[in-house]
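Q: Fold this one first, please.
A: Sequence and structure below.
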Amino acid sequence: MSIKAEIVAIGSELLLGQIIDTNSAWIANKLSDVGINLYHKSVVGDNQHRMFSTLDTAFQRSDIVITSGGIGPTKDDITREVVAEVVGRQLVRDQELLNDIEKRFRSRGLIMSANNEKQADIPQGSIPVFNPNGTAPSFIVEEEGKVIISLPGVPSELKWLFENEILPYLVKKFDLSEIIISRVLKVSRMGESMVDDKIGFLIEESQNPTIGLLAHPGQVDVRITAKAKNNEQALNLINPVEEKIRKILGDYIFATDDQNISDTIQDVFKEKGQTIGVYEDITSGLISQELQISSANSFIGSVVLGKNNQTNDINSQFSHQLSSEKSNDPVDFTKRAARFVMEFFGTDISLAVHGVIKDSNKVDNLGNGTTFFVVTDGENIVSDQYNIAGFGLSDRKRLTIYALDTLRRFLLKS
């Protein structure tokens, strides 16, 4: 039987953008670990009518409804009241929960105010869940084979309760015997539509495992997801599909799962023991930051020019010299910049990234222009270019990944 779950995040602050709902994404990942399918996620403000409509709809169409937030002591914390209304039960005060809340206040030398008592109110017949990390207990309502689970909105409290109390309950309650495992292949230098064109026939025919695409600036994630009784069976389903995709996409795949482009470069640097210097302008230091974090022992230094050719103090004289020598040939300039930083820092290899913006538009993504990339070790040289140039964050992130991928390919072939 396929178990359908739904998450309802409660709080007007979420709708107003004052707080970002990270809880739902975290819960979604945990549900997939035990093979529970998440079909819907909702956010609703602290309004009784709208909360009832949202929760009632969720409870009608899903086996498991998980709420976060709205079980605190204030007047706008009305989740418990609305859940009781959805299942047609009265709220009752649980004495054990009340004693536990009072004990927590006393342990901190505080006196519990009257409004905290409402946190011990739960729908009649529901299962109380004690919260050792806060004063908002959780509760589980079982009704006609379905469940509503109400959790606090504080992430640290929610995560502890979910991992230690809720997941074990769900596994036992629904006799869960399957897990969901995913393998993510990260692709650069190829847009989402091109990846789809290459492996679309595999996506169309995929059932278990399924294949999905997710685009980010500079990369596309190919996610292969399998459902099975255990890890070994899931991987046996994933591996042949992954092999087919790797044969088609080849070295456009730069990382797997939690790895990023910097991780793969770090591994190669460790193996080869090489050092690197960087010149960059259009990316405004993002490349240097990535290398400084991931490959600190290999990264020696950089020359960074920003929008107005502003330079870092350490290499001010050198940077001004480099800036003044720009020619009308951006490819030639980028090659000379790569040689300059390699000689200046005394490194084994160098990476230069130079952008030429065509106009002064203020778009944040896919700015008009061309960016040039060069990697060299003094003897060998790899150059590339992309028809994107802009100082928007999306463009800079995209170009940083393209540049680091150019470096990755050079390192692997040298």
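Q: Good. Now the second chain.
A: Here it is, same layout.
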Amino acid sequence: MTKDTPLPPKLRSFIAAMPKAELHVHLEGSIGPGTLLELARRYDRLHVLPSTDPNELHTWYEFVDFPRFMRIYLTISDLLRTPDDFALIVERHGEAMAAQNIRYSELTFTPFTHTDYQDKGLTIDNLLEGLEAGRAAARQAYGVEMRWVFDIARNMSFDAGGRYDPHPAERTLEYALRGREFGVIGLGLGGFEVGAPPEPFAHAFADAKAAGLLSVPHAGETVGPSSVWGAIDALQADRVGHGVRAIEDPALLVALRDRQIPLEINPTSNVCLHVYNRAAVHPFPHLDRMGLKVTVNSDDPPLFNTTLNDEFNLLAAEFGYGAAGLARIARNAFEVCAAPDTLKSTLLAEFDAWAAHAVPEAEAA
């Protein structure tokens, strides 16, 4: 079974209508083929794409391995060149949120790529201008709310000899602090974990937490429990992006459960990245049954050919979650998000009011 496995129509409709929050989705990885073509035409750079046919681009997007994933990611990033470009992709994401009844989203964004790694003449003020314009436009047009996690590009932080360079972390922290008044709520750590452990980044995360930002690193995806231990001990993680490899260490499971450190789980992404060879063996339901605070997310939706609705469909089709279980998982994301207290209370009240009548209706014979 997969996320495309037919579900009872009542349950599929329940998932589509359910108000949602999403905590783990990459802004640059949310750009669909149509928007990418629009950006390439804007800069007369269609030659950097393998095709101008959206269907062929969709195939090109499909994940094969991490090096190809990074090439696609950097191609996408290179086509983001002005504040208007960032505003465009944020507003388009807002449109996609509204289509799935996602009320609130915390998007991971990698500013260092745009200001330092790629020479595009962009400043952090340019990026913040675009992000804020897109966020305001999406709020007005679709009634959705977004916040940002600025993440450190861990793979850009080590040289060929494995020596750690603090510059990407320090620069990203500087950007995150600058962006607090524009909706930045956390400091993240993304990229390929192999050869890039969490511990060297502790200095940046300590300063981020002292300044009131959340620590939300990726860990326990392509590297096992040691990565998660590093995230929760050295980086004092408030949430862990992925974290699924914690299933391999009983002591770690106890620590995550007892400390109630939420996991931002991305099942389809994990299968595409070959963390698990098929959805049936994904540990999501086991982590949930063990009492860990789990959320479900889409990561890089078009690159993994998924949506947040698809991920909830997968939970139902593969693991047998019914309406009550799906609503409980969805509520977790609202509970642990970093929305301001007033907004969080409003979102939770709206969700609870909806679930109070929708769950019994969906589960009625």
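Q: Anything worth noting on the second one?
A: The CA atoms of residues 50 and 56 lie 8 Å apart.
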